[in-house]
Design goal:
The complex is a heterodimer. Chain A has helices spanning 4-10, 28-41, 43-49, 51-80, 82-90, 92-133, 136-144, 149-186, 190-193, 196-227, 230-235. By secondary structure, chain A is an all-alpha fold. In chain B, the strands form 3 sheets. Chain B has a 6-stranded mixed β-sheet with strand order 9-10-11-6-12-13, sandwiched between helices. In chain B, strands 3, 4, 5, 7 and 8 form a 5-stranded antiparallel β-sheet that branches. In chain B, strands 1-2 form a two-stranded antiparallel sheet. Classes of the chains: A mainly alpha, B alpha/beta. Bound molecules: adenosine-5'-diphosphate and magnesium ion (MG).
């Protein structure tokens, strides 16, 4: 089985090692390349784990898309209906009513944004907890092979940032897409009425929130997992 | 270097920190050494005298205890295990399921801390090492093989084998060459770029063997390496380990309740309920190989 000659050449047990030395930490770059491979290799699995991120960010972007669409429509109606404006002005009680309705709508929107932020936070925390715990055994194995705690933490921070960004992108696409469809059905040509600058800002904020929350949420489980004795990490059954 | 004096017999010795017992009366000198600035049992300087770097026993445990705490209950998994493992030997740790084999594996491999007692590797007290030194030891000096293979699922065979080399800071080219050669060595030269799920159990375990050898370790620790393999494949892994042991002089410590292991072992340590029951040498094994089989069979039935 073994090619003896090869074995002798290649593999000689090193029994003299003098002083015990200190392991050096791998750079962020090295951690990054391993993290990148980890995420891309199991993209499907990773996105299932990141479902919390996707759903949370989809909710948030859908609320903001609805917001921008609604405002666009109202703006459009306000400008195109200048003829009716005079008539409306005459009906003072009606205008007051409209104003009250507008205030209620704004409050409802704010409430929805807060709710969706909460959903995102909970979903993302859960996702990141899952992404670490489902890989305890792998963490234990890597520690056996010489990984330092810092390396494990770095690996998971990079992975969760990438996962957070990807999940948020997907979530933003889904949330924005669905809400646009809903509004297109309700009001033809809604896209032309919308303030796209504002929409882009909202999308960027949603991506940033998803990524940063993912990163932050991954810190406690990653640190905890990295500090586990390898035996304990290896013993966990998922 | 420091001059230390043995508190028992008054013998004085210039020491680099390598010698931890008095050469005259075998008194433990580590406390004295600590006083004169050596960290306990730590090799501070590389000794130039060859005889000083090699010790008779590559692994030594002293009164090793491990108690797991499960809620209110204390589970004693190891109860005062003392074993001395010689350099280059093939040692099997036999015992029924739950006897403490894996626990001992974890202590010797620096994967967990004992509740009481000490484990020395090359006379270095593992309890005195910090996280960086332990990681270095795990990376360079010990290779691990597990019952469940524990390959990284997203990495190819070659990437799995080169991972410990990345941790050891090896250059990329050297890593690839060495990884390919090691895989060739274990008979997987044509499977470099296969993922673990594309390989059979026996092939996965071969990758794990190659990975364990990545950084030329002094010790290969195997915890039931044949536990998840069929008879024939298990036999092949055992033979592979034996050949490596003979070719390279690597010390192999294998926890097992696989009777096939007995044939290749230099010594067999039988443990039961966390205690060493008896130790058999190669010579004894050859003598009563007939009685051994019937002795061990009940244990096999308790298999995991
Ligand atoms: N992580 C743990 N927590 C609690 N008890 C444990 C743990 N690991 C092992 N034990 C207990 O310690 C004893 C020895 O276990 P182990 O070393 O795994 O035996 P073996 O490997 O010989 O089958 C068993 O009674 C087992 O239940
Ligand atoms: Mg076991």
């Amino acid at each position: 089985m073994i090619k003896s000659e090869l074995a002798r050449k290649m593999y000689k047990s090193e029994t003299d090692w003098g002083e015990v030395q200190r392991q050096v930490t791998l750079s962020w770059g090295q951690a990054g390349s391993i993290a990148y491979r980890n995420v891309t290799m199991r993209l499907g699995r990773a996105l299932i784990t990141a479902a919390g991120v996707v759903l949370g960010i989809a909710f948030l972007t859908s609320v903001w898309t609805a917001n921008v669409a609604q405002e666009g429509i109202m703006e459009y109606e306000a400008t195109s209906a200048t003829a009716v404006a005079a008539e409306e002005a005459a009906l003072a009680p009606g205008a007051e009513e409209a104003e009250a309705e507008e205030r209620a709508r704004a409050a409802r929107q704010a409430w929805l944004v807060i709710m969706s932020l909460l959903v995102s936070a909970v979903g993302i925390t859960n996702s990141m907890l899952m992404s670490v715990t489902e890989r305890f055994r792998e963490i234990g194995t890597m520690k056996c092979l010489g990984a330092l705690d810092e390396f494990i933490v770095r690996l998971f921070l990079i992975e969760s940032a990438v996962l957070g960004l990807l999940g948020s992108l997907l979530g933003a696409l889904v949330g924005h897409g669905i809400m646009m469809l809903v509004y297109m059905i309700r009001q033809a040509g809604v896209a032309a009425m919308m303030d796209w600058g504002q929409m882009l800002i909202y999308l960027a904020i949603a991506l940033a929130i998803g990524t940063v929350l993912s990163l932050v949420a991954a810190v406690p489980p990653a640190v905890r997992a990295a500090r586990m004795p390898p035996a304990a990490a290896l013993a966990t059954e998922i | 270097m420091a001059r230390i004096e043995c508190p028992e017999c008054g013998h004085t010795e210039e020491t680099t920190g390598l010698v931890t017992v008095c050469p005259e009366c075998s008194t433990d000198l580590r406390n004295v050494m600590e006083e004169v600035g050596h960290r306990r049992g730590r090799m501070r300087e590389i000794a130039h005298d060859d005889s000083m770097t090699t010790h008779e026993f590559i692994v030594r445990t002293k009164d090793l205890h491990k108690i797991y705490i499960m809620g209110e209950v204390e589970v004693p998994a190891l109860r005062g295990v003392e074993i001395n493992i010689r350099r280059g030997e093939y040692l099997s740790i036999m015992g029924p399921s739950g006897s403490g084999k894996s626990t001992l594996f974890n202590m010797v491999g620096g994967l967990d801390k004992p509740t009481k007692g000490t484990c020395f590797i090359e006379e270095v007290d593992m309890a005195q090492l910090d996280a960086f030194e332990l990681a270095w030891l795990r990376c360079r000096k010990i290779g691990y093989i597990f019952q469940t293979f524990n390959l990284i699922p997203v990495m190819t065979a070659l990437e799995n084998v080169t991972l410990p080399m990345i941790f050891a800071g090896m250059s990329s080219d050297e890593m690839m060459d060495r990884g390919a050669l090691l895989l060739d060595l274990v008979g997987l030269g044509d499977r470099l770029h296969h993922k673990p799920f594309e390989l059979s159990g026996g092939q996965q375990q071969r990758v794990a063997v190659a990975r364990a050898l990545a950084n030329n370790p002094a010790i290969v620790l195997a915890d039931e390496p044949t536990g998840n393999l069929d008879l024939q494949t298990g036999k092949e892994i055992i033979d592979l380990l034996k050949e490596l042991n003979e070719e390279s002089g690597v010390t192999i410590i294998s926890a097992t309740h696989d009777l096939k292991m007995i044939d290749v072992s230099d010594r067999v340590v039988h443990i039961r309920d966390g205690e060493v029951e008896r130790v058999e040498n190669r010579a004894d094994l050859d003598l009563d190989v007939g009685t051994l089989g019937s002795d061990e069979k009940p244990e096999l039935d308790e298999g995991e």
